[in-house]
Class I SAM-dependent methyltransferase (Kitasatospora purpeofusca), 217 residues
Amino acid sequence: MTTAEPEFLTATRTFYDAIAADYADRYRDALAAMPWDRALLGAFAELVTTAGGGPVAELGCGPGRITGHLAALGLDVSGLDLSRRMVELARAAHPEIPFAVGSLLDLPYGDGELAGIVAWYSIIHTPAEQLPRVFDEFHRVLAPGAPLLLAFQVGDDALRLERPFGRPVTLDFRRGRPERIEALAGAAGLKVTTRLVREPEPDERTPQAYLLAHRTV
């Protein structure tokens, strides 16, 4: 018997399929104005490279703008996203990079296969009760000592975004406290080694958090 897909996955896929082209157009060059983001992604790339390299995945890659940046930094990177339309756009923009459709709840990688993971604002649609499973999956697919880089909005509540770009869809964006996300990582065997919280930019509503963790050896 086939198990029904969790409702939040269906809602997230529907939302991003609907706004994929608008989202890609709006944020295509956003990284150029984000020095902290570039610095952290650069540090992640250096950690992977100095450890000997290997396959890296951006999970929740959207149209592939971060994936493309990681490839430009010399990483052997692939992308995974729940939205089929986002993956189509990512493949068109970066034909040299492999992209696939998939969920954070069931990652399509073998145990210890990855030399690093970037999850850039991709845990923010997962309900709290499902996050331990997501972090367990991160731990499972990472090689011992390999890094995980997370980005998310800081807060205790959820933002309900309705009709973005005029599209008839709605989705909850779940914020998190760095200490709570760090505890989830720790419970899954991922040790946080770097924490950064920056104040919001003029077009942002909340502070932004970044955590760098490593699978314990």
In short: The two ends are 38 Å apart (CA to CA). The chain has one domain: 7-215. The chain has a mean pLDDT of 96.
